[in-house]
Design a protein that fits this description.
The complex is a heterodimer of chains A (about 550) and B (about 100). Chain A is α+β, with helices and mostly antiparallel strands and about 550 residues long. Chain A has two domains: about 70 residues, Alpha-Beta Plaits (2-Layer Sandwich), CATH 3.30.70; about 325 residues, DD-peptidase/beta-lactamase superfamily (Beta-lactamase, 3-Layer(aba) Sandwich), CATH 3.40.710. Chain A is built from 18 helices and 25 strands. In chain A, the strands form eight sheets. Chain A has a six-stranded mixed sheet, with no helix packed on it. In chain A, strands 14-13-25-24-23 form a five-stranded antiparallel sheet, with helices on both faces. The longest helix of chain A has 27 residues. Chain A starts with a helix and ends in a 6-residue tail after the last helix. Chain B has two helices and no strands. The longest helix of chain B is centred in the first third of the chain and has 57 residues. Chain B has one domain. Chain B is mainly α and about 100 residues long. Classes of the chains: A alpha+beta (about 550), B mainly alpha (about 100). At the A-B interface, strand 3, helix 9 and helix 18 of A face helix 1 and helix 2 of B.
């Protein structure tokens, strides 16, 4: 009996081993073996796809391809090596000794002389009429508007295999769509590796990359970049950024930050400049945040614009004392005046009326603490602390925008909800994706949620119009226009405390307030002419707004 | 019958050979034409790419603003908007005339 079972076990074991081995060869190692067999049978030449273009809302290209070439030498066919080196090395800016050495190596079938060489240089090389020099198409990115919208667009570099790959911004986010799919030319080869010419080569055509059509208006982008650059110089700021968004669709009409870089020469710039600060850097919003806290309180019906509070002096919470920004106190003031005077103590009152739980619910509903899902690669979101970690002083300071970190995009989107009847939209840069055959896929505007009611949105809009018309920045406002907005001056946290002198000045607003065409946020980091948003960011906001009114032919209301 | 086959078969073979040569010759010509068309397409595609780049460059706002400055245009110091109230007539029909003056 034992012998019978032993024989049975041996048979089962043997078959199991055979099955396991077959499974290994056919399933686990199958794809590698197929690739190895294919490399033994076929010669393959990749046919690179052409990267898609990126066009502005008027169809004009912001990024396209420029004819360029991979230039290489074929040492076996060069007749006079010294003459070749003497003619080619200066044109290609190569070391003649090094080139001569590479060309004299016996096993080299070809020697690359330059990647993405432009047309002018290629024509000069062709004019030399040299034997043993070859050219293969290798288009490179061209930026008709130079460095405009660099942070938004990103750039194209190379991966570890030398293939084009998009980094940052749209190039990074839409790398697969823009990159397309490489094709190939496949030809059978004999045992010595020589091609067998009897059969026609198998040609798989490359699929060129798709075109991205943006919401971005290149005129608005130019106005914003020009005015921001002038503003940074005028107010002596270290950095600055501006976002202009359509509040009804969430479409980004312009987005600029300085200092910036040139995507065509990105290697010449500091890597720290590659990330887009409007989506990848955070700041404390300061008084601009008051508009959102006030809107939440109005929506909860805890307050009305005419509700009064007694602004009679600093507010003490535990060991902390909260003052107004200019240490002036106005006695009995309405909620409209709280925004108009940008009263910190008034906002402590508003925050208390709202309560911690509702406050946190609204902060999250306005989109803080989570990424906005914008189609830009490097977006991040600062986290919001858990409810249990919020003390009374946290609620008090956050109600006037200190002690909370947000990205500029989160801030402009949240205020965009006030301009859009309370509806929070998902911001987007791309409006449509068009494939090589002309098929167009629209990216429809996406409403995330209703944060506040339409009635509350109308009321807060009127309060913000009053804050602009009668607030600290009223001197800079273009007359006749109804602009809703709020200034902000936030101190910068450094090593656990706030720097006494350095500030981030900002202004957020929308116009025309009754039917908003745009919502815009201007931030200036460490302005030296004045630390206040009302004297730096606000006039810059109004300068840009004036240009936009003129461009869109928006008359005074 | 045998004699007939001796004559007809070589004749047919000859005709077929000539036909084969003609067809091959035609095909060789067609292949040449296809190659020529392919190279024309490639050349035109290259030219199109180059022209597209030149058009984009010439119509860029950077280029247009530079040309505007060279042509003597200057930006207004302050943007002015003139708004007409609905009640203001910008054209009237004069008495005795049928069209807008």
């Amino acid at each position: 009996m034992f012998r019978l079972w032993s024989a049975f076990a041996a048979i089962v074991l043997t078959y199991s081993l055979v099955i396991a081995r077959l499974f290994y060869w056919q399933v686990i190692a199958g794809s590698d073996l197929r690739a190895e067999a294919s490399s033994q049978y076929y010669l393959q030449l990749p046919l690179p796809s052409q990267r898609g273009t990126i066009v502005a809302s008027d169809g004009k290209p912001l990024v396209m391809n420029e004819p360029a070439f991979l230039v290489y030498a074929e040492p076996q066919t060069i007749t006079d090596r010294n003459a070749f080196v003497a003619a080619v090395a200066p044109l290609m800016e190569l070391d003649p000794d090094e080139l001569g050495k590479q060309l004299s190596e016996r096993n080299r079938a070809w020697v690359p002389l330059g990647h993405k060489v432009d047309n002018t240089k290629t024509n000069a090389l062709k004019a030399l009429g040299l034997k043993g020099i070859g050219f293969e198409k290798e288009p490179k990115r061209y930026y008709p508007e130079a460095s405009a919208a660099a942070h938004l667009l990103g750039f194209v570099g190379s991966d570890e295999f030398g293939r084009d790959i998009g980094y940052f911004g749209l190039e990074g986010y839409y790398d697969r769509e823009l990159g397309g799919k490489d094709g190939r030319l496949q030809l059978e080869k004999d045992v010595r590796g020589a091609p067998i010419l009897i059969n026609q080569p198998l040609r798989i055509e490359p699929e060129n990359g798709r075109t991205l059509e943006l919401w971005l208006d290149r005129t608005v982008q130019r106005i914003v970049e020009q005015r921001l650059s002038e503003g940074i110089t005028k107010y002596g700021a270290k950095e600055g950024s501006v976002i202009v968004m359509d509040p009804k669709t969430g479409g980004i009409l312009a987005m600029a930050s300085f200092p910036s870089y040139d995507p065509a020469k990105f290697t010449q710039f500091d890597r720290d400049l590659y990330k887009n600060p409007t989506v990848a850097a955070s700041f404390e919003p300061g008084s601009t945040f008051k508009a959102l806290v006030m809107a939440a309180s109005l929506n909860e019906k805890k307050l009305t614009p005419t509700t009064t509070m007694d602004e009679n002096g600093p507010v003490t919470i535990g060991e902390y004392t909260i003052r107004t920004w200019n240490s002036q106190y106005h006695g009995q003031i309405t909620m409209s005046q709280v925004l108009q005077y940008s009263s910190n103590t008034g906002m402590v009152y508003v925050g208390r009326q709202l309560g911690k739980d509702a406050f946190l619910t609204y902060i999250k509903a306005f989109g803080f603490g989570t990424p906005t899902n914008i189609d830009l690669q490097e977006e991040f979101s600062p986290e919001i602390r858990e409810s249990s970690e919020w003390s009374e002083i946290d609620l008090a300071t956050t109600s006037f925008g200190q002690g909370i970190a947000v990205t500029p995009l989160q801030m402009v989107r949240a205020v965009g909800a006030l301009a859009n009847g309370g509806a929070l939209m998902e911001p987007h840069v791309v409006r449509a994706i068009i494939d090589a055959k002309g098929n167009r896929a629209e990216m429809k505007p996406k409403k995330v949620r209703d944060v506040i009611s339409k009635a509350a949105a109308n009321v807060i809009a009127e309060m913000l119009i009053n804050a602009v018309d009668n607030g600290e920045a009223k001197w800079a406002k273009p007359p006749g226009y109804r602009i809703a907005g709020k200034t902000g001056t936030a101190q910068i946290p450094v090593s656990g405390h706030y720097d006494e002198e350095k500030t981030i000045a900002s202004f957020v607003g929308f116009a025309p307030a009754d039917d908003p065409k745009f919502v815009m946020l201007v931030t200036l980091r460490e302005p030296t002419s004045s630390p206040w948003g009302s004297e730096t960011a606000a006039p810059l906001f109004f300068t840009i707004a004036r240009d936009l009114f003129s461009y869109w032919s928006i008359p005074p209301q | 019958m045998k004699k007939f086959l001796y004559v007809i078969v070589p004749c047919m073979a000859f005709v077929l050979m000539v036909g084969q040569i003609i067809v091959t010759n035609e095909l060789a010509g067609v292949g040449n034409d296809i190659g020529s068309l392919d190279s024309d397409i490639a050349a035109l595609t290259d030219e199109h790419d180059l022209l597209s780049q030149q058009v984009a460059s010439a119509s860029s706002l950077t280029s247009i603003s530079q040309k505007a400055v060279l042509a003597g245009f200057v930006a207004p110091k302050k943007a002015n908007v003139i708004a007409l109230d609905d009640s203001v007539d910008v054209a009237v029909i004069l008495p005795g005339r049928s069209s807008v003056q």
